Amino acid sequence: MNLDKDLFDVENMEEEVETKEVEMTMPAYGSQEWNDYVMDKFDRKDLIDGNPTCAGLRRVAEDVLGDIVSSRPSQVFPSTDTNGPGRATVVFEVVINWMNSGEYRIFREVADVWHGNTDDLFCAHPVATASTRAEGRALRKALKLRCLAAEELAKNKDIVGIVKESVRKAPTSGEYEAGQKISTQQVQFIDTKCNQLNIDVLSFINMGSGNYPSIADVTKDSAKKMIKVLNDYQNDGSLIQDTIKGYKTNWRL
Fold first, then answer.
1. Which tens digit of pLDDT belongs to each residue from 124-169?
2. Which residue in 114, 181, 194, 185 sits closest to 154, CA to CA?
3. Rounded distance, CA 169 to CA 122, Å?
């Protein structure tokens, strides 16, 4: 009788039983215990001050939810500021083979980067940084985590103070010229919301009394009203008329 071999076999059996017990304790997706269960999957190297990095989120998402079959920016709005890094916005899409069952689930998120919400080192590359942030948000959404991704934080910026100062310096609504054209930020917002809600942009901006061959013909005041309507649509999708449904990616042409 080989006692060492028997002891080794017993230890292996105990490890297999422990492994099976751990696998069986996986809580229901999105349950009260889910967040803690997922956070325990991160290694120390995956966390910065308790916040998971985008790389860590990718690894844990595949470990817990299934293979990531596609991960890409679906829309990119680079900065148009020629005098600095400016603001960039990215819509990121992650497609997961849900629990490797053959069912594909898509998660999308948006992130923007500008000097007021990003540390200077990363602010110099606004599109790349916005892409990483948006990917992290999409993965957080898929994992149903209650924390921010590490890349979403700006440790060396007083974001609240910068935003307050920007608001203080911004002109009041009465200072806008009545015919001032729509801003780049408003165009980006309208396009992003229409994409999310599956709305044709040109049909939407012309659904009222206005006649706009191009979105560039819309005024700032009209754009503000359009944005309010889109926010109402997001809160209640039943308000969206059938005549404006069907987002077209090449609507600018």
1. 889 999 999 999 999 999 999 999 999 998 877 665 665 566 555 5
2. 114
3. 25
Please check whether residue 86 is in contact with residue 125, taking contact to mean a CB–CB distance below 8 angstroms.
no
Local structure of 181: helix, strand or coil: strand
110: left (phi over 0), alpha (psi -120 to 50) or beta: beta
Nearest to 57 by CA among 155, 129, 137, 154: 137
**Minimal CA–CA distance to 100: which of 78, 144, 67, 133?**
67
Q: Strand 51-52 and strand 68-77: pairing?
A: unpaired
CA angle 242, 195, 109 (to 5 degrees): 140
Most trustworthy range by pLDDT among 20-29, 115-124, 138-147? 138-147
Measured in whole angstroms, how far is the alpha carbon of residue 133 from the centre of its chain? 7
CB distance 22 to 14 below 8 Å: no
CB 37 within 8 A of CB 26: yes
Burial class (CB in 10 A: 0-12, 13-18, 19+), 145: buried
11 φ, ψ to 5°? Answer: -65, -40
Helical spans, DSSP H, in the chain: 3-24, 34-39, 54-64, 120-123, 126-143, 159-169, 184-197, 201-205, 220-235
